[in-house]
């Protein structure tokens, strides 16, 4: 949280920054619903207007003239100023807005980053932003102000619209730009008098009139918005699909990478039985989904049947828009790294308790990683023991996913006697949680995830109805599937590469040398090898290779038109195996993540998903995964069994990626005694 006593001193905001603050909708953590092309034109218009106010260009209704090519020192403004200065022919504002609209994304990114750096905006995982509360002092504003800067910008606009005061020329330009993209009706209740006032203000300044007119022209006639001739989406030949070696090995990201190389970033797979699906793959597709997916894609439809299995409706993975952001923001602290950092002593205690049963020479089944993680997550998140029912919870959830999400099994397979028995474990878990989460029993206990969900249900039963508690509370434990499988891949990668094992062991011994490390001790400098090792594990073995969405608004991506009603599979991890992003992608190489390579700094690296549905607990997972890898390395030496798996690990891809059940780990050595 931002300290409300802090005083911020900074140069006056630029027009692009004030525009972004005005367009921000705190209800959904993003901009008001301005179509992408309209937003691009408006943002570029704000840059041109700022350059005009800084006397670098002069513009009127008919022309745009370079006045001074001296750089402003602003990384948003100077690249555009250079393009105008280097143009051999004089152009008008309409031309420049149309030409520069394609650069709007980078302008928005830089502007948002600066506003976050200035503590004017707060960034939330999933590409959400909200206004930060602070004391603000700047020359433009002439004093100290309580509240957020964004609110102050909006207050100036409100005063201009709803009083008779003559607005400042900057405010006239901002109002003209917002009006050009038709957003005021989303921000205020407008009557005829106010609409006339807006029209009057928009005529007060020549710069504002000329830029707004150019923006409106390009919005009305978006010549570059989309091609009128969309490409035909190629269909994957079933023979090519079935003969692909990665299909047989279960390596879904590598399979999708092969198909992307052959068919392009958009392709279809049409099975003989069942509905076809469109796939979006490649770094450009990832970038588009990350930025624009919220406007065109929704999760609710395909997730609905899976929700019904638990009697739920409107849980976090199925929500979109304002409700999704509201729930995500509210529950964010419960899934945060800081929450786990405060409970690391319990992580160590439960991990050691589980490892106490390991004996030298013993073969450990790969599922032990799930159980080891659950031995920690269950008491940490829900304050109950669930080791006796966790296998049933996992089996039921995986069958439900395979049936209703992957559609790889007929629906009656969820109603077999075995599955009905396993379904009862969900109610058993809920009864246990509710029995220990009474006010009297929680006195003096550290807050856990169940406390957060139950508290939110009590305070807002519409956002979290009672019917959803079976899902959200059992999902806390079923996270042991994903985190446990990630741990199994990491243990395999460590055990199959003795040289890396030794380096990780060295970092583990240093961390545990003087007692158990605290959360802050898990820094990139103290676990430099381990950190890169885990990043490479997440690249080569992403647990969730992609995600499905339904198209609610048609769009064009990479020249392909995607119609309303289509179901798309976002293959966000396909670039993990594309050699133009990750050279020699089948080689386990932790040096990918150091300068100058920095291969992860690309939209092609997406182990935790993209955009608004990016994994909420990714930072928690990073820390718990690292803690478990390091504690295993400190106490034990494990080997891969059978030995042939050292060279090639068979994968089980459904409903999420995991190692073959045949994988085992042999306890070769116990290096230290486990504390009692």
Please characterize this protein's 3D structure.
With 676 residues, the chain is an alpha+beta fold. The protein folds into 2 domains: 7-219, yeast vps74-n-term truncation variant domain like (yeast vps74-n-term truncation variant fold); 252-670, Orthogonal Bundle (Cytochrome p450). 48% of the residues lie in helices and 11% in strands. The chain is built from 26 helices and 21 strands. A 5-stranded mixed sheet has the order 10-11-17-14-12, sandwiched between helices. A 3-stranded mixed sheet has the order 1-8-9, with no helix packed on it. A 3-stranded antiparallel sheet has the order 13-21-18. Strand 15 and strand 16 form a beta hairpin. Helix 2 (36-53) crosses helix 4 (93-100) and helix 15 crosses helix 20. It is globular, with a radius of gyration of 28 Å. The two termini are 39 Å apart.
At the first level of CATH, what is the class of the largest domain?
Mainly Alpha
| Mean pLDDT across residues | 90
* CATH topology category name of the largest domain: Cytochrome p450
The total number of structural domains is: 2
How many beta-strand segments? 21
Major beta sheet, specifics? 5 strands, mixed
Share of residues in helices: 40-55%
Q: Shape, please?
A: globular
Strand content: 5-15%
Strand order in the sheet with the most strands:
10-11-17-14-12
CATH H level, superfamily name of the largest domain? Cytochrome P450
Between the first and last Cα atoms, what is the distance in angstroms? 39 Å
Total of helices: 26
């Amino acid at each position: 949280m931002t300290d409300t006593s802090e005083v911020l001193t900074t140069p006056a905001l630029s027009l692009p920054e004030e525009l972004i603050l005005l367009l921000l909708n705190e209800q959904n953590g993003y901009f008001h619903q301005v179509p992408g092309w309209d937003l691009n034109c408006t943002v570029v218009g704000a840059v041109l207007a700022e350059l005009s106010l800084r006397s670098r260009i002069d513009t009127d209704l008919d022309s745009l003239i370079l006045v001074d090519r001296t750089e402003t020192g602003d990384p948003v403004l100077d690249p555009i100023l250079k393009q105008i200065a280097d143009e051999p022919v004089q152009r008008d504002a309409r031309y420049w807005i149309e030409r520069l609209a394609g650069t709007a994304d980078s302008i928005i990114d830089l502007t948002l980053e600066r506003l976050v750096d200035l503590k004017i905006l707060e960034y939330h995982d999933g590409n959400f932003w909200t206004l930060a509360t602070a004391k603000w002092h700047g020359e433009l504003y002439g004093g100290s102000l309580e509240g957020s800067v964004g609110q102050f910008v909006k207050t100036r606009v409100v005063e201009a619209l709803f009083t008779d005061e003559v607005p400042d020329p900057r405010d006239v330009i901002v109002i003209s730009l917002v009006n050009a993209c038709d957003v005021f009706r989303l921000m205020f209740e407008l009557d005829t008098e106010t609409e006339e006032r807006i029209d009057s203000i928009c005529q007060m300044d020549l710069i504002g009139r000329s830029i707004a007119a150019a923006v409106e022209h390009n919005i009305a006639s978006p010549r570059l918005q989309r091609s009128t001739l969309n490409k035909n989406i190629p269909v994957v030949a079933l023979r090519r699909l079935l003969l692909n070696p990665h299909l047989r090995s279960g390596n879904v990201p590598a399979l999708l990478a092969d198909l992307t190389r052959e068919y392009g970033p958009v392709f279809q797979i049409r099975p003989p039985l069942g509905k076809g699906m469109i796939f979006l793959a490649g770094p450009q597709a990832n970038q588009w989904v990350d930025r624009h997916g919220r406007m065109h894609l929704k999760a609710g439809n395909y997730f609905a049947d899976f929700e019904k299995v638990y009697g739920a409706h409107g849980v976090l993975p199925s929500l979109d828009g304002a409700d999704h952001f509201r729930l995500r923001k509210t529950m964010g602290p419960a899934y945060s790294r800081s929450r786990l950092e405060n409970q690391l002593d319990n992580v160590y205690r439960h991990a050691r308790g589980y490892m106490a049963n390991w004996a030298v020479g013993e073969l450990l089944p790969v599922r032990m990683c799930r159980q080891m993680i659950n031995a920690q997550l269950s008491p940490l998140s829900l304050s109950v023991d669930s080791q006796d029912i966790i296998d049933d919870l996992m089996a039921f959830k995986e069958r439900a996913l395979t049936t209703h999400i992957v559609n790889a099994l007929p629906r009656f397979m969820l109603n077999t006697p075995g599955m009905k028995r396993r379904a009862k474990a969900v109610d058993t878990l809920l009864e246990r949680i509710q029995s220990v989460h009474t006010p009297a029993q929680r006195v003096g206990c550290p807050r856990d995830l169940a406390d957060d969900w139950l508290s939110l249900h009590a305070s807002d039963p519409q956002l979290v109805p009672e019917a959803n508690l079976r899902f959200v509370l059992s999902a806390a434990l079923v996270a042991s599937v994903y985190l446990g499988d990630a741990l199994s891949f990491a243990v395999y990668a460590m055990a199959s590469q003795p040289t890396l094992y030794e380096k990780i062991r060295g970092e583990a011994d240093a961390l545990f040398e003087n007692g158990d490390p605290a959360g802050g001790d898990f820094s990139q400098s103290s676990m430099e090898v381990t950190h890169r090792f885990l990043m490479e594990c997440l690249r080569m073995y992403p647990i969730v290779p992609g995600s499905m969405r339904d198209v609610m608004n048609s769009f064009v991506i990479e020249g392909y038109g995607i119609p309303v009603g289509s179901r798309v599979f976002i293959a966000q991890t396909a670039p993990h195996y594309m050699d133009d992003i990750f050279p020699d992608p089948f080689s386990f190489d932790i040096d990918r993540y150091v300068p100058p390579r920095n291969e992860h700094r690309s939209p092609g690296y997406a182990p935790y998903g993209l955009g608004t549905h990016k994994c909420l607990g990714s930072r928690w997972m990073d820390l718990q995964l690292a803690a478990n890898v390091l504690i295993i390395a400190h106490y034990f030496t494990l080997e891969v069994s059978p030995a042939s798996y050292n060279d090639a690990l068979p994968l089980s891809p459904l409903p999420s990626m995991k190692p073959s059940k045949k994988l085992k780990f042999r306890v070769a050595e116990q290096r230290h005694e486990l504390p009692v």
